[in-house]
Amino acid sequence: MHAYAETDELAQLIAQKHDLLSKLQLLSRRQLQLSGHSDHITDLMRVVAAKQTLIESLLNVDRQLDPHRQCDPEARQWRSPLDRHRCSQATRECQAMLDELKLMESEAEDRVRANRDEISRSLQTTQGSTVALDGYASTSGPVHRIDLTAG
């Protein structure tokens, strides 16, 4: 095992994490576009399923990063200062993407909740109209027909 194996692996895992978070951002933006619109529920469910797959991959990468978190960053041997800088920059970008993803997720939940409440109110109004019509029909008695044919 060469001197740079640890930092090479760390850089590769950070790059994977960055890639997964970038894809999650795209899907989360799509989810925001679709959330709150009940006519896009099938598309929304596809986006959520795709996000779940990416989240599972992200959790796997994060588990692989665990041993690296225990190491002193100053003790790591990098191939070059540029490699260290790139990994550090990617790590900062990952954190920024995670923060943005949390905000988008919260906004999507709010939109879905608002849409759910609106659908519920609409159903209640429809049910109220149906109950009123049923009540009217049951109290109006039999319908009387008048024969207007000349006899």
How would you characterize the overall build of this protein?
- The protein is mainly α and 151 residues long.
- The protein has a single domain, classed as Topoisomerase I, Chain A, domain 4.
- Helices cover 78% and strands 0% of the residues.
- Helix 1 runs antiparallel to helix 2 (41-69) and helix 1 (5-34) packs parallel to helix 3 (81-139).
In short:
The protein has 151 residues and is mainly alpha-helical. The chain is built from three helices and no strands. The protein starts with a helix and ends in a 12-residue tail after the last helix.
Furnish the topology, listing elements before pairings.
Blueprint: H1 5-34, H2 41-69, H3 81-139
Radius of gyration: 29 Å
Largest sheet descriptor: none
* Beta-strand residue percentage: under 5%
Shape: elongated
Secondary-structure-based class equals: mainly alpha
CATH class: Mainly Alpha
Low-confidence stretches: 140-148
How many domains? The number is 1
Q: What is the number of strand segments?
A: 0
Query: Which architecture per CATH?
Result: Orthogonal Bundle
Report how far apart the termini are. Answer: 110 Å
Mean pLDDT: 83
H/E element sequence:
HHH
Structural features:
Topoisomerase I, Chain A, domain 4, mainly alpha, 151 residues
